[in-house]
Amino acid sequence: MGMKQRRRIYYSASQRSEIWDRWQRGESMRSIGRRFDRQSSSIFSVLSPSGGIRPSERKRSERSLSLSEREEISRGLVAGRSLRAIAAQLGRAPSTISREVGRGGGRDRYRGTVSDQAAWDRALRPKPCKLACYPALRRTVSRKLRRSWSPEQIAGWLKRGFPDGEQHRVSHETIYKSLFIQARGVLKKELLEHLRAKRTIRRSRHASLKRDGLGQIKDAISISERPASVEDRAVPGHWEGDLISGARNSHIVTLVERQSRYVILAKVANKETASVVTALIKQARKLPRELYQSLTWDRGKELADHQRFTLATEVEVYFCDPQSPWQRGTNENTNRLLRQYLPKGTDLSRHSQAKLSAIARQLNERPRKTLMYQTPAEMFAERVAATR
After folding, report:
1. 316-319 and 263-267 beta bridge pairing
2. What CATH topology corresponds to 223-386?
């Protein structure tokens, strides 16, 4: 008894267009599949050949023969008309009709619809990739990817370093396409492992990222009372913090300075408030007072003893509204970057403080688009120097 063949699913051009529209709006493959009453795997088969990057719309050259012209050629051949007569009727050069009929199998085998599809297939000549044309540029991009730089960081750094050298610059979209569309064969597939998100296709920038709100804090000072100078990042020294969790009840404190995006990681024994507050006090005492003026936290109970922290450091603590993690957007974004090094579900307690400091240093030495491709380490060092 033979193995049962899975029925192949086909989508029309309009359905494929809708799939791409929904994917670019940030819908998941499962959600898109429900719209068509199909499994998410069938949606993946549409998205994966181009790596989740929507292919550009194909356009026929005005000089190319149209389908209707090819059908007219086919009818003319069946009627026994000469190639020159067909060319005159269509307003085309006889040599054009002769080449078309020759490519289509000759007078006896030419079919308009078949030849039109063959012409589309021949037109699928991929544009030479810039990374394939410039080996030195390709090697530079590969080195930066191995250092866990994002394609956007690489592109921004190259633009900043080589403003006039076209052969030394490349867009982040070209890097993504070279990684996700393996038919290009330019960047090795193994380099995908160095991207923050371990995906085989690129996700839409509008894809939702959700996080649950946490508990209640006694005597919490609301973020609404935080000075306006903190909000607009005009003054350095204002931090956002959180606790990221792993397997076996393991946790790490993450801190990020709002203006420079400078990151500090601190090892904690557990998520009890005594342990977390002690770690925060220890980190605060390593910084100049001018560069630690406030701390914004979510409603996690690990900072229930925030008053002890403020008493020891003179740093005011502000708390986000319930279920409003976007009020600490800088820290939330940083936590997503950190998951490249500290994946969910792993035991975070096995990382020493030295290892955590090395991870933070690597993040701080990445150029950031929001800093005009300056690194957080460079900007924070400037702020430290200004306090001396």
Report:
1. unpaired
2. Nucleotidyltransferase; domain 5 (3.30.420)
